């Protein structure tokens, strides 16, 4: 633990805020004592991990990388994090991310842009950028990210590590700051499929504090080694046959498809919604939900407060001064989408498209066991580029947001490209995703 803390501190492009040193070291001493006394130790005893700074860990700062919450302390601990602590894992750092999960590059943060682990001129990806970089650089053994529209899978891909978004509801969201509640998922970033499996098992389960959580069965190590039940794999033609995809990503993806065919697994081309439709449906709903979720941050109960002449001024100055440009863009967009005169035309249309997307997946999973896709159409942008062109940043989410809207389990595995391969299965088939990842190994 001490070595890893030193590594974190000596890192010149540090992605870390609010180090938990004393806390971590005290826990590590407890582990040492347990081992010396011959006491039984937990499954994750002594394993250091990082936490995207959108989770509650009692007594530590929970900033969401935002000005508004920069001094806010967690009054309680998130369920998923508590389960990790109960298994003996040691929280080392709260990790830099896009403010409130808003972004795909980890530049929308008060702590400075997260730099890519492979090439520091490039972004670390987002919004769980700090979490992916910390794992890639071995500062933490694993990190807990948050994925609403790709925020675990995309930075995992950009930094050559594994990142898993479980089926929606498999892991309790209690204690995760809400971005878009209908797609928010808690998941691990790690260096192996086996680590992902273990961490997922520890965090999963029904929680009375999250009504959308459900009880799932444990994924056993031996189960994920046997891939015989995977007969057919599909991919979306329009994700690959488009000018929008980087040629190297396209050829690496098609090479993987050829390898899979050579094993005797059937490969099917599938039809799907256009990238523009997926991105606009996701952003319509995500902006609406975040505008609603963030309305409680008005300086009354949480975070920074700037006094105005009256209450209305106080709300307005507090929010105008403390939310970032990107977050304000989403609040304004979301409130417009929900407002009278627009909601039927835009919000309800978004909900309707989401249903169509889910139906499309149900139909697809009658024909194929697994859907494969690159994680992004593009390679990681240079630092600064995404800030200049938010629309291009939104479009870079084209391959991840559909699976979020469908609430499906989906995993990024490194593929020797700058983006990785995304493996998706039907709802609650998380085990099959890990099985197929193991098979490709
Ligand atoms: N990039 C997407 C967005 O900004 C996804 C973010 C996330 O999953 N938190 O909405």
Written account of the structure:
The chain has 441 residues and is an alpha/beta fold. The chain has a domain at 2-203: Amidase signature (AS) domain (Amidase signature (AS) enzymes, Alpha-Beta Complex), CATH 3.90.1300.10. It is built from 16 helices and 11 strands. The chain has helices at residues 2-10, 21-36, 79-86, 129-136, 153-158, 193-203, 237-240, 247-262, 275-293, 311-322, 325-338, 347-367, 385-388, 390-395, 401-405, 430-440, and strands at 16-19, 48-52, 90-95, 142-147, 162-165, 185-190, 232-236, 266-270, 370-374, 410-413, 421-424. It has an 11-stranded mixed sheet with strand order 1-3-2-4-6-5-10-11-9-7-8, with helices on both faces. β2, α3 (79-86) and β3 (90-95) form a beta-alpha-beta unit. α9 crosses α11 and α9 crosses α12. The longest helix is centred in the last third of the chain and has 21 residues, at 347-367. The chain is globular, with a radius of gyration of 21 Å. It binds glutamine. Glutamine (GLN) is lined by residues 101-104, 127, 146-151, 179, 286, 397.
């Amino acid at each position: 633990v001490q070595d890893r803390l030193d590594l974190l501190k000596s890192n010149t492009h540090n992605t870390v805020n609010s180090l938990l040193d004393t806390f971590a070291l005290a826990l590590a001493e407890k582990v040492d004592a347990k081992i010396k006394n011959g006491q039984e130790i937990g499954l994750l005893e002594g394993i250091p991990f990082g936490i995207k700074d959108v989770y509650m860990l009692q007594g530590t700062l929970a900033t969401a990388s935002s000005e508004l919450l920069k001094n806010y302390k967690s009054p309680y601990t998130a369920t998923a994090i508590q389960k990790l602590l109960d298994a003996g894992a040691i929280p080392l750092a709260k990790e830099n991310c896009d403010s409130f999960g808003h972004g795909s590059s980890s530049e929308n943060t008060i702590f400075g842009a997260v730099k890519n682990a492979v090439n520091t001129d490039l972004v670390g990806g987002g919004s769980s950028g700090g979490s992916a970089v910390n794992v890639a650089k071995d500062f933490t053994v694993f990190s807990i990210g948050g994925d609403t529209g790709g925020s675990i899978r995309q930075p995992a891909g950009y930094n050559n590590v594994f990142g898993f978004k479980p089926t929606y509801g498999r892991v309790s969201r209690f204690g995760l700051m809400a971005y878009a509640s209908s797609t928010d998922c808690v998941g691990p970033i790690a260096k192996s499929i086996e680590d992902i499996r273990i961490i997922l098992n520890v965090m999963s389960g029904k929680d009375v504090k999250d009504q959308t959580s459900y009880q799932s069965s444990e994924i056993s190590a031996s189960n994920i080694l046997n891939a015989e039940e995977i007969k057919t794999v599909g991919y979306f033609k329009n994700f690959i046959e488009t000018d929008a995809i980087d040629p190297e990503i396209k050829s690496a993806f098609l090479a993987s498809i050829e390898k899979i065919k050579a094993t005797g697994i059937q490969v099917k081309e599938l039809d799907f919604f256009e990238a523009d439709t997926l991105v606009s449906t996701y952003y319509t709903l995500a902006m609406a939900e975040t505008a609603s979720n963030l309305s409680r941050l008005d300086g009354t109960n949480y975070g920074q407060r700037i006094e105005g002449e009256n209450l209305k001024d106080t709300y307005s100055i507090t929010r105008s001064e403390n939310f970032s440009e990107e977050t304000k863009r989403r609040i304004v967009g979301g409130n417009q989408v929900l407002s009278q005169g627009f909601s039927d035309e835009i919000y309800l249309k978004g909900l309707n498209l989401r249903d169509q997307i889910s139906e499309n997946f149900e139909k697809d999973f009658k024909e194929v066991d697994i859907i494969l896709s690159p994680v992004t159409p593009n390679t990681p942008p240079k630092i600064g580029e995404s800030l200049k062109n938010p629309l291009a940043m939104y479009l870079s989410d084209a391959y991840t947001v559909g699976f979020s809207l469908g609430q499906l389990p989906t995993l990024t595995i490194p593929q020797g490209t700058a983006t990785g391969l995304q493996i998706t299965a039907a709802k609650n088939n998380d085990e099959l995703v890990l099985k197929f990842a193991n098979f490709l190994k």
